[in-house]
């Protein structure tokens, strides 16, 4: 950058910093990186690897308010990834539910769009230590998005689409319900809107999906693991040592029982195949390896519990969750005696559940949520908690037969993909070009 241009950039940053009116920000004639510096003068901005159709990509570390209602509460480092394609293209906002890993999302490819990926506050690199729990709320996260998008709309004046997967998709719906005009279209993938801390609808699906023979085989596998507890624990200890896993928050025997209880949910969530479930006479190695493949113990070791601590806090406070079904193995359990996942939430923190929060989001989605495209897999237990838009709402809900939590637009049949494309085209307008996905 030559000396004169640098002076101009510093002047524009100063104007944007001290001006009371955001309309005074001048961006014309600057490079994209310089424009980001003007819009976010207090951020740390660095280039990252460019993939797919993008021309430039940047990691933006914002000084985000802990409390948008009280700026004196302080700030935290909030990680955002901005991938630039073309000012005239649509922009896809990704509301991550957890940490963010810089990559290209399906919708960004479909629209050859610009992409803004936002790590959820207090997750991943955006996690302050210790976590100030009182500020980990969905409403605070929504303000993170709203303020960010208001600024970026000075660059990207075309259509905006918000999207997220699972908890991120739920966040997409929450954001849409709070600021319905911030984006033109919302596309939540496999997003639940959960009713209680232990929503029984997930177990209802688990006990009805597939064939009775398959469901019986799942229960038999659970029982077989626990009947061979001693041998399986030997294998689990060896596995934990190899993977450098520590079990101090939850004992290794407790972790085994939780993994067994989790098995039916994970089996259907990730598209398990009934014919792959080991028979009762299988060796302990075969039994153990299949349990690890489907349920794993990653959540239950110290590192996993720490990683998901913010998530379980949110599930117990606002989002709700599912409960374990103990009955099929109740006589074989030695440690676990509760159906609740509250075991994995932070201790010595108020976990009073707000039953009305998600109800309000559901009410919006089902009765007013126009221009929302829902993507689900029919066998995914989280799909049991999906919204059901009323006929008068201009929304499209697509459920893939036999699909699971990894279901995406590309997985649908050609005719269903065309239905999706047509609806997106209708909502976004003929000026927006779609680039059909390959499955």
Short description:
The chain is an alpha/beta fold and 439 residues long. The chain has helices at residues 3-18, 32-39, 106-111, 138-152, 167-178, 201-206, 212-227, 229-242, 252-269, 284-294, 302-307, 309-319, 357-367, 414-428; strands spanning 44-47, 56-65, 75-84, 91-95, 114-118, 160-165, 185-189, 373-377, 396-400. It has two domains: 42-194 and 357-428, Alpha/Beta hydrolase fold, catalytic domain (Rossmann fold), CATH 3.40.50.1820; 201-344, no CATH class.
Topology:
Elements: H1 3-18, H2 32-39, E1 44-47, E2 56-65, E3 75-84, E4 91-95, H3 106-111, E5 114-118, H4 138-152, E6 160-165, H5 167-178, E7 185-189, H6 201-206, H7 212-227, H8 229-242, H9 252-269, H10 284-294, H11 302-307, H12 309-319, H13 357-367, E8 373-377, E9 396-400, H14 414-428
Parallel strand pairs: 4-5, 4-6, 6-7, 8-9
Antiparallel strand pairs: 1-2, 2-3, 3-5
Task: State the CATH class of the largest domain.
Answer: Alpha Beta
Give the strand line-up of the largest sheet: 1-2-3-5-4-6-7
- Per DSSP E runs of 2 or more residues, the count of β-strands stands at 9
Coarse morphology: globular
Approximately how much helix is present in the residues?
Answer: 25-40%
CA-based gyration radius: 24 Å
Poorly predicted segments: 3-9, 15-23
| Main sheet: strands, sense, barrel | 7 strands, mixed
The pLDDT mean sits at 94
* Structural class by SSE content: alpha/beta
């Amino acid at each position: 950058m030559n000396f004169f241009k640098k002076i101009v950039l510093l002047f524009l940053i100063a104007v944007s910093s001290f001006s009371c009116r955001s309309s005074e920000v001048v961006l014309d004639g600057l490079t994209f990186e310089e424009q980001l510096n003007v819009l976010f003068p207090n951020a740390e901005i660095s280039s990252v690897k460019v993939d797919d159709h993008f021309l430039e990509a940047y990691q933006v570390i914002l000084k985000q308010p802990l409390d948008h209602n009280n700026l004196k509460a302080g700030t935290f480092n909030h990680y955002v990834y901005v991938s630039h394609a073309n000012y005239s293209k649509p922009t896809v906002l990704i509301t991550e539910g957890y940490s963010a890993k810089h990559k290209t999302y399906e919708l960004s490819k479909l629209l050859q769009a610009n992409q803004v990926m936002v790590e959820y506050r207090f997750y991943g690199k955006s996690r302050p230590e210790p976590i100030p729990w009182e500020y980990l709320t969905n409403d605070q996260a929504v303000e993170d998005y709203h303020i960010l998008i208001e600024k970026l709309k000075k660059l990207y004046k075309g259509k905006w689409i918000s999207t997220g997967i699972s908890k991120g998709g739920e966040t997409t719906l929450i954001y849409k319900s709070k600021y319905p005009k911030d984006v033109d279209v919302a596309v939540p993938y496999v997003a639940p809107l959960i009713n209680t801390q232990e929503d029984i609808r997930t177990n209802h699906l688990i006990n009805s999906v597939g064939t009775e023979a398959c469901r019986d085989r799942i229960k038999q596998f659970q029982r077989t693991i626990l009947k061979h507890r001693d041998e399986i624990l030997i294998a689990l200890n060896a596995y934990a040592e190899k993977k450098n896993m520590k079990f101090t928050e939850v004992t290794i025997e407790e972790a085994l029982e939780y993994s067994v209880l989790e098995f039916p949910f994970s089996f259907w969530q990730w598209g398990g195949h009934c014919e792959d479930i080991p028979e009762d006479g299988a060796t302990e190695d075969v039994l153990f390896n299949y349990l690890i493949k489907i349920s794993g113990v990653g959540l239950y070791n110290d590192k996993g519990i720490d990683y998901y601590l913010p998530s379980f806090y949110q599930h117990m406070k606002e989002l709700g969750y599912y409960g374990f079904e103990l009955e099929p193995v109740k006589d074989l359990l030695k440690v676990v005696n509760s159906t609740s996942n509250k075991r994995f939430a932070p201790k010595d923190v108020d976990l009073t559940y707000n039953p009305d929060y998600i109800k309000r989001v559901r009410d919006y989605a089902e009765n007013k949520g126009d221009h929302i495209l829902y993507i689900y897999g029919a066998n995914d237990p989280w799909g049991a908690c999906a919204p059901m838009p009323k006929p008068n709402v201009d929304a499209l809900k697509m459920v893939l037969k036999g699909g699971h939590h990894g279901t995406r637009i590309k997985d649908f049949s050609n005719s269903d993909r065309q239905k999706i494309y047509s609806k997106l085209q209708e909502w976004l307008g003929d000026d927006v070009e779609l680039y059909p996905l390959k499955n």
